[in-house]
Amino acid sequence: MTQTQANDAPLVLAVPSKGRLQENATAFFGRAGLSFVQARGQREYRGQIAGLGGAEVAYLSASEIVAQLSSGAAHLGITGEDLVREQVADADASMVLLAPLGFGQANVVVAVPQAWIDVRTMADLDDVAATMRARHGRKLRVATKYVNLTRRFFASHGLADYRIVESLGATEGAPAAGTAEIVVDITTTGATLTANALKVLDDGVILASEANLVASVRAPWGKQARDAAAAILSRIAAEEEARSVREVRAVLNAVSPQRLGEIAHRLGARLPFGTAGSDGVVTLHCPRKAVFPLVEELSKAGADDITVRALDYVFRRSNPLIERLLARI
Ligand SMILES: Nc1ncnc2c1ncn2[C@@H]1O[C@H](COP(=O)(O)OP(=O)(O)OP(=O)(O)O)[C@@H](O)[C@H]1O
Ligand SMILES: O=P(O)(O)OC[C@H]1O[C@H](OP(=O)(O)OP(=O)(O)O)[C@H](O)[C@@H]1O
Ligand SMILES: [Mg+2]
Questions:
Q1: In this structure, which residue's CA is closest to atom 16 in ligand 2?
Q2: Which fold has domain 244-313?
Q3: I need a surface site. Which of 121, 185, 192, 215 has the fewest CB within 10 A?
Q4: Probe ligand 2: pick from 103, 107, 192, max atoms within 8 Å of CB?
C-alpha cells in the first residue's frame, strides 16, 4: 500500500463478534447512537456504521481485536484489559486505553486447592514450590492461558520454582485432573473456582480487568480515519456526559450573574448557555449527586419553579476521549 492510500484508509472499528463482550459492546455503541449494518447478513464479518461514513466495522473475537490493534490493522476496538496485558508486552507503546466501560469485569487470579489450608499468600506458595523442588525434585505446575501475566507476576514475587502448563480451556479442572497443582485464570463470580475446590490467594489478584475502549497508535491515522474517530468518540463522550449530569432549569430574576456563577462553581455545575437571558430562565448542567443541593441553593436565591431532567446527549467542542487519542497519534 502506498503512503497516500494508507493515509486515506477508512477507520476500522473492531467489535467483539462472540462471547461475553459481544452483547454489552453492541449495547454500548447503541446507547451512543452508533448502530451497525451488516450488509450481507449475519455471516458477513465486515459492516458499516449507520449514517457514518469513513468507517468499517470488523467483527472479531476479543483476543483477535487485541492483535489487530497492536499491529495497526484496526484503529479502535473494544476488548478486555486482561487480553491486552497478556498479549502485548509493552501495550502502552502501541495502544491507548481510552476508557474503561463498566462491563466485562473479571479478575485474573492465582488460585490453589482449598485443601492447602496453610497456603494463603504468594510467600506461602513460594515455600510450597521450594519444598516440592527440594523433596521431590519436581516443579510446581501452574495451569493457565495467561502465560505472560503469570510469569511477570510470579517474578515480581520472587517465585521461580514453577513450570507453566498451557491450558486452552477448563483450566480450573487441571488440579483435579492431575495436570497441574494450581491455576491462574479469570474469575467473575468465583463460582467456577468454588466448584473446583480452589481458592484465591490473599495477594493473588494479578489484574482487575474490564472491557475497555482501546485505540491503536500504529494504525494509519489519515484524515478519513481521524474524522470518523472524532465523530464516534464525540457521540460516546456525549452519551457518557449526559448520563453523569442532570439539567436544572429555573426562572431567576433577582439573582446577579456573579451570585449564580458562584453557586454553580461551588456545586460543580456548568452554565452551558450562559447566565439568564431577558426571560430570566437559566439552564444548569450539574453532577447527578449535586442536584438537590443545587435546587436548594436556587430556591434560597429566589427561584420559583425549578425543573430537573435527564438528557440524552451533551455534545461539547472537545471531549476527554478525543483529547487522549490526539495526544498519541
Ligand atoms: N466471567 C468471565 N469469564 C471470562 N471472560 C470474561 C468474564 N467476564 C468478562 N470477561 C472478559 O471477556 C473476555 C473474553 O472472554 P470470552 O469468554 O468471551 O472469550 P474467550 O474466552 O477468549 O474465548 P472463548 O471462550 O470463546 O474461547 C475475557 O478476556 C475478559 O476480558
Ligand atoms: O468466576 P466465574 O463467574 O465462575 O467465571 C469464570 C469462568 O468463566 C470463564 O470461562 P468461560 O465460560 O468464558 O469459558 P472458557 O474457559 O471456554 O473461555 C473463565 O475462564 C472461568 O472459567
Ligand atoms: Mg471464555
A1: 169
A2: Alpha-Beta Plaits (3.30.70)
A3: 121
A4: 192
Predicted TM-score (pTM) of this structure:
0.91
Segments in the chain below pLDDT 50: 1-2
Q: How far is the CA of 55 from the centre of ligand 3 (A)?
A: 29
Q: Best mutation site among 18, 20, 189, 206 for ligand 1, i.e. most ligand atoms within 8 A of its Cβ?
A: 20
The set of cell numbers assigned to 70 is 497492536
**Confidence at residue 1, expressed as pLDDT on a 0 to 100 scale:** 47
pLDDT tens for 88-136 read: 999 999 999 999 999 999 999 999 999 999 999 999 999 999 999 999 9
Could you tell me the CA-to-CA distances from 304 to 184, 249, 280, 296 in Å, in that order?
A: 60, 10, 11, 11
Q: Which atom of ligand 2 is nearest to the CA of 172?
A: 22
Protein fold of 3-104+210-240+321-326: D-Maltodextrin-Binding Protein; domain 2 (3.40.190)
**In angstroms, rounded to a whole number, what is the distance separating the alpha carbons of residues 296 and 312?**
25
Q: Could you give the ipTM of this predicted complex?
A: 0.93
- Ligand 1 center to 319 CA (angstroms): 30
Domain covering 106-208 in this structure, CATH number = 3.40.190.10
Kindly state if the Cβ of 190 falls inside 6 Å of ligand 2: yes
Nine-digit cell at 157? 514475587
Cell of 39: 450488509
Q: Domain boundaries in the chain? A: 3-104+210-240+321-326, 106-208, 244-313
